[in-house]
Design a protein that fits this description.
The chain has 1 helix and 25 strands. The chain is mostly beta strands and 369 residues long. It has one domain (11-368).
C-alpha cells in the first residue's frame, strides 16, 4: 500500500561533517530543500508489505560520465540527501546508506555481495513526539569522501529494517511517479523506471516507473538537464522536471515538443560562470587537460561546440549555488527531426574573478531524444 505524502513542511535534519561541492538530484523538485510539491507519495517499493531490504535510485546506464571526477582516475561522493517519512515518529527506525554496482547483465542493481560499492550506518530516523506522520529532508555528509564508478553503472539508496505495521508505522522515502501529473515526474511515455527495490532473499530487484527523492553530494561541479513542457501541470519548478524527464524528454512533435534546461551546480564557484558544450557522444578515453580540474568526458572529435553560457548564483542563505541555463525553448522546430538521436553535454565552471586556476569540468550527461 502506498502512503500519501505528509501535507505540510518538511523538516531539515543534517549530520554535516564536511561540505560537498555540489549535488546530483534526479528528481522534479529543486536542488535546495523545499516543500516537496512533486512527490506522488511516500513509499517503500516492494517493502510496503513490511519486509526488510533496499530501495535504490538508478544512475541511468551509460548516460552520466565522470560524476564527482577530481582527476582522470578518481570520482568521489561525499554526501547523500533524501526526504524520508515516518508514520509514527516516536518509534525510531535504523537504516543504512547503500551504493551498488549495476548487475553484469546490464539490467538492475547487482544484489550479490560483490555488487556492493559502499555501506554507511547504522543511522536512526529522527525522533518526534508528534502523533502524526513527519517528513524530514535529511542530508548526511561523510568525514572522508568515497569512490564512485566514473561511469554511471551504479545505484544508491537506503537499506531499511522490517516495518511489519507499515503504513501505520515505518520509515519510507518520497517518490515521484511518471503517471500522476503534477504529483510526479514528466518524462516521455517509454522512459525506463529509475526507482528500484528488493526484499532480502530476492535474487532480482523490482523496477518502478518513478524516481526516488534521493540526491548524491559529490566532489566536483555537476550538470543536469531538465525538460520543459508547457502542458506539464507543474510542481515547485513550474513546468520543469529535472527527474527522468531530463534524460528522456518528449521532443516528438506529436502532442509534445519539450524544451531543455541545464542546471549546473558548483558551491566552490558561487557568483562565477558556466560554459556548456555539446556533441553527439561521450569520450571513449576521458582525459585531463592542463590547468583544468576534472576530465573532458565528451568526445572532442564528434563536433564539440560551445552551446550556452550562464551565471552561477551567489546566495549565502541557499544550500547550493547553481546556474539555470535554457538550452532550447519548448516548441523548437528542429527537435522533432532529432528523435532517436543522442546528445551529450558537459560544462566548465569558473569563479567570479575569472581565475584560470578555478576552471573545472562538470560530469557529462547524455540526453535521449
Amino acid at each position: 500500500m502506498r502512503t500519501p505524502i505528509l501535507i505540510g513542511a518538511i523538516l531539515m535534519t543534517s549530520l554535516s561533517l564536511q561540505a560537498q561541492r555540489s549535488f546530483f538530484h534526479v528528481y522534479p523538485d529543486p536542488i535546495d530543500p523545499a516543500l516537496d510539491q512533486s512527490s506522488s507519495f511516500t513509499d517503500r517499493g516492494v517493502l510496503n508489505a513490511g519486509g526488510a531490504g533496499e530501495i535504490l535510485a538508478e544512475m541511468p546506464g551509460d548516460m552520466v560520465s565522470r560524476l564527482g571526477s577530481i582527476n582522470q582516475d578518481q570520482c568521489m561522493f561525499s554526501a547523500m540527501e533524501f526526504v524520508q517519512q515516518d508514520e509514527m515518529p516516536a518509534t525510531q527506525h535504523q537504516y543504512n546508506l547503500i551504493y551498488r554496482f549495476r548487475h553484469p547483465s546490464g539490467d538492475g542493481p547487482d544484489l550479490r555481495d560483490e555488487g556492493l560499492i559502499a555501506f554507511a550506518g547504522p543511522l536512526t530516523t529522527p525522533f518526534s513526539t508528534s502523533q502524526s506522520s513527519q517528513a524530514w529532508n535529511t542530508r548526511i555528509t561523510f568525514t572522508t569522501p568515497g569512490p564512485l564508478p566514473c561511469e554511471s553503472n551504479f545505484f544508491y539508496g537506503l537499506e531499511m529494517e522490517p516495518a511489519p505495521n507499515f503504513p501505520s508505522d515505518g520509515q519510507s522515502v518520497h517518490m515521484a511517479h511518471y503517471e500522476l501529473g503534477n504529483l510526479g515526474d514528466w518524462p516521455r511515455i517509454d522512459a525506463p523506471g529509475l526507482a528500484w527495490s528488493f526484499e532480502f532473499g530476492d535474487t532480482v530487484a523490482t523496477e518502478d516507473p518513478a524516481v526516488w527523492d534521493i540526491a548524491l553530494g559529490v566532489e566536483a561541479p555537476t550538470l543536469q538537464v531538465g525538460n520543459d513542457d508547457p502542458a506539464n501541470p507543474g510542481g515547485v519548478n513550474g513546468t520543469l522536471s529535472f527527474g527522468a524527464g531530463g534524460f528522456f524528454p518528449d521532443v516528438s512533435g506529436a502532442g509534445r515538443n519539450d524544451g531543455l534546461v541545464a542546471r549546473i551546480a558548483d558551491n566552490d564557484n558561487a557568483g562565477g560562470f558556466v560554459f556548456i558544450f555539446m556533441n553527439s557522444g561521450l569520450n571513449p578515453s576521458p582525459m585531463m587537460l592542463p590547468g583544468l580540474g576534472g576530465v573532458l568526458a565528451i568526445d572532442p572529435g564528434a563536433g564539440l561546440r560551445l552551446l550556452r553560457s550562464g551565471d552561477i548564483s551567489d546566495n549565502p542563505t541557499a544550500a547550493n549555488d547553481f546556474a539555470h541555463v535554457v538550452l532550447v525553448p519548448p516548441g523548437t522546430p528542429t527537435l522533432p527531426a532529432m528523435v532517436g538521436q543522442f546528445v551529450s553535454l558537459q560544462a566548465i565552471t569558473m569563479d567570479a574573478g575569472l581565475n584560470l586556476a578555478s576552471l573545472h569540468f562538470t560530469n557529462a550527461m547524455v540526453i535521449s531524444l
